Amino acid sequence: MSFSLDQPFIFVDLETTGANPERDRITEIGLVAWEGGEAREWSTLVNPQTTIPPFICQLTGISDAMVAQAPAFADIAAEVMARLQGHVFVAHNARFDYGFLRNEFKRAGLDFRARVICTVKLSRKLFPGEYKHNLDAVAARNGLSADGVRHRALTDARLIHQFLVKLRQELPEDTLAGVLADISRQAGPPAGLDAEMIDRLPDGEGVYLIFGEAGQPLYVGRSKQLQRGVLAHFAPPGRGNKALRIQQPISRIEWVSTAGEFGAMLAEAKLLKSLEPSLNPPRRGQAELCAWRYLPNADGSAQVQLVHAAELDFGREAGLYGLYANPREANHTLRKIAEVHKLCLVRLGLEQAGRRRAAPCSAMPLGRCRGACVGKETALSHQARVSAVLAKLALARWPYAGAVLIREQNPGSTACDLHLIDHWRYLGSAANEAEMQVLLANPPPGEFDADIYKLLNKQLREGSGLKVETIS
């Protein structure tokens, strides 16, 4: 593919409220148009219509007060589009800037496409022996400087422009043109995938859903970088690629963007349960989900009772131990526990007492029972041992009076997810307060789910830094 160095270029840098193009917004645009050897600059602050996180304010120096009177992107979308059209789009880590602009244009009802050059890729291609290729390193290595403060849009756009100008001065024209043609060439999508489908996938964290030719769910996955996570399933197998290879024809790909890992894990668990995709490992069945209930009493006569989640609210019931996919698993596990700790099968309730008074259980003659069934161990002593052994399997009690809101804020972004949880039941998530009010007004019934319970219990127990708010 030929590449003319005489065509118009536009060097682009954006400042944003964070790194997620679906959840964050642009706060500043800097453009340097380069055509016929002449450079024309343009920049503007943009009102993101949301607060700017403190981390971003510190990095860029752009505050809420500075953008308060600036235009919203929708108000300048037509002008920005006119400035970009007909130019080769050049940016440092171009997928970031290009992705943000495409999403902002989409919200404004416009479709933006351009030939893209990433100067990170350009630097790596031309200087493979160098370790760092961020803009600071590129500027220092090439002696570039620009008026203004780093991490402001126009300053950074000027540096990117200077980099290409310097390369044009130092490299043979055909060498530079060949490299630019190579890095700007759009690689075809993997077989069975539509280029537009892949292009729409964001870089942020979330869950993706891959559907087969007939619309059936094939796979649900979670990734910190959605596009990279999806493409890994269609890349050639290799040492660094452990993703499940998908070879079936694909009809569509959907995704759920999240503010962080916790929300992604919740969404993944919910989708795996509801969709049962054919290529994911089978989930623990809910239909026969059961646990042992054990309620010690004053005379030591308590016995275990197998109870089912379909009949009992495991999120509210006390004295529950273990979570089992079915009664067979529950019985097998408890019998192994009894064998290891020499618990009486009759006292546990796993065997019926013999017709003879004080008849031993089947484990007694084998030396696997301390004799609670024949009076060698008191009922209260046996009950205390059972309680101590089962304590390790106890289902955690819900630590709050009622439902709670778990607020998951991305520290480097405006993206914030609100998760509604009640007695270990995940009721849903919202991206803002207004959506949460709708959810609170009509919460779904929800049900106890073993995978959700384990996820929530681990996160709350380990002090993950998530903000928990009780709901009055």
TrEMBL record:
<dbReference type="GO" id="GO:0003677">
    <property type="term" value="F:DNA binding"/>
</dbReference>
<dbReference type="GO" id="GO:0003887">
    <property type="term" value="F:DNA-directed DNA polymerase activity"/>
</dbReference>
<dbReference type="GO" id="GO:0045004">
    <property type="term" value="P:DNA replication proofreading"/>
</dbReference>
<dbReference type="InterPro" id="IPR036397">
    <property type="entry name" value="RNaseH_sf"/>
</dbReference>
<comment type="subunit">
    <text>DNA polymerase III contains a core (composed of alpha, epsilon and theta chains) that associates with a tau subunit. This core dimerizes to form the POLIII' complex. PolIII' associates with the gamma complex (composed of gamma, delta, delta', psi and chi chains) and with the beta chain to form the complete DNA polymerase III complex.</text>
</comment>
<comment type="function">
    <text>DNA polymerase III is a complex, multichain enzyme responsible for most of the replicative synthesis in bacteria. The epsilon subunit contain the editing function and is a proofreading 3'-5' exonuclease.</text>
</comment>
<dbReference type="GO" id="GO:0008408">
    <property type="term" value="F:3'-5' exonuclease activity"/>
</dbReference>
<dbReference type="InterPro" id="IPR012337">
    <property type="entry name" value="RNaseH-like_sf"/>
</dbReference>
<protein>
    <recommendedName>
        <fullName>DNA-directed DNA polymerase</fullName>
        <ecNumber>2.7.7.7</ecNumber>
    </recommendedName>
</protein>
<dbReference type="GO" id="GO:0006289">
    <property type="term" value="P:nucleotide-excision repair"/>
</dbReference>
<dbReference type="InterPro" id="IPR000305">
    <property type="entry name" value="GIY-YIG_endonuc"/>
</dbReference>
<dbReference type="InterPro" id="IPR047296">
    <property type="entry name" value="GIY-YIG_UvrC_Cho"/>
</dbReference>
<dbReference type="InterPro" id="IPR006054">
    <property type="entry name" value="DnaQ"/>
</dbReference>
<dbReference type="InterPro" id="IPR013520">
    <property type="entry name" value="Ribonucl_H"/>
</dbReference>
<feature type="domain" description="GIY-YIG">
    <location>
        <begin position="203"/>
        <end position="281"/>
    </location>
</feature>
<dbReference type="GO" id="GO:0005829">
    <property type="term" value="C:cytosol"/>
</dbReference>
<dbReference type="InterPro" id="IPR035901">
    <property type="entry name" value="GIY-YIG_endonuc_sf"/>
</dbReference>
<dbReference type="Pfam" id="PF00929">
    <property type="entry name" value="RNase_T"/>
</dbReference>
